[in-house]
């Protein structure tokens, strides 16, 4: 069974940076597409960034392009989200997600992922 554990959230000011980490266990990490989603109260969980299992191709939602970078370290069974130039609208609970069989058109869909972490809170004040 896949388990995901996020860390790295916190309270920062607008313009600051944070790096989220997600440690994967239970299966072969190299086989899994990984993603970050975020959610605020009363809203749907939304895709932030994704990275494919092979080749490491990355994908981002428009609002974070140029500010956030997703990466993976297969030796450490970890995926990261480097968040720069944070804005108050980035405030959310951030979730790590994993799935072994994701087609490209579904990489941004929360229903395509079978495994989720517990989330880590990111709060950006103005």
State the gist of this model.
The protein has 126 residues and is an all-beta fold. The chain has strands at residues 3-7, 10-13, 18-25, 33-39, 46-51, 58-60, 68-73, 78-83, 92-99, 115-116, 120-125. Strands 2, 4, 5, 6, 9, 10 and 11 form a seven-stranded mixed β-sheet that branches. The chain has a four-stranded antiparallel β-sheet with strand order 1-3-8-7, with no helix packed on it.
Describe the structure.
The chain is mainly beta and 126 residues long. It is 0% helix and 48% strand. It is globular and about 40 Å long.
Defining key terms:
single chain; mainly beta
Uncertain residue ranges: none
Strand content: over 45%
Structural class: mainly beta
Instruction: Give the termini separation.
Output: 40 Å
Whole-angstrom Rg: 13 Å
Anisotropy-based shape: globular
The H/E string reads EEEEEEEEEEE
Query: Count of helices?
Result: 0
Give the biggest sheet: 7 strands, mixed
Mean pLDDT: 96
Task: Kindly state the percentage of residues in helix.
Answer: under 10%
Q: Tell how many strands the DSSP assignment holds.
A: 11
């Amino acid at each position: 069974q896949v388990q995901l554990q996020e860390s790295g959230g916190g309270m920062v000011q607008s313009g600051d940076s944070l790096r989220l980490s997600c440690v994967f266990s239970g299966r072969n990490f190299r086989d899994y597409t990984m993603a970050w989603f975020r959610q605020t109260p009363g809203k749907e969980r939304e895709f932030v960034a994704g990275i494919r299992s092979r080749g490491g191709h990355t994908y981002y939602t428009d609002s974070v392009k140029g500010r956030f970078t997703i990466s993976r370290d297969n030796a450490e069974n970890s995926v990261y989200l480097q968040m720069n130039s944070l804005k108050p609208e980035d405030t959310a609970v951030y979730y790590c997600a994993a799935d072994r069989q994701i087609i490209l058109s579904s990489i941004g869909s929360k229903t395509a992922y079978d495994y989720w972490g517990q989330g880590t809170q990111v709060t950006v004040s103005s």
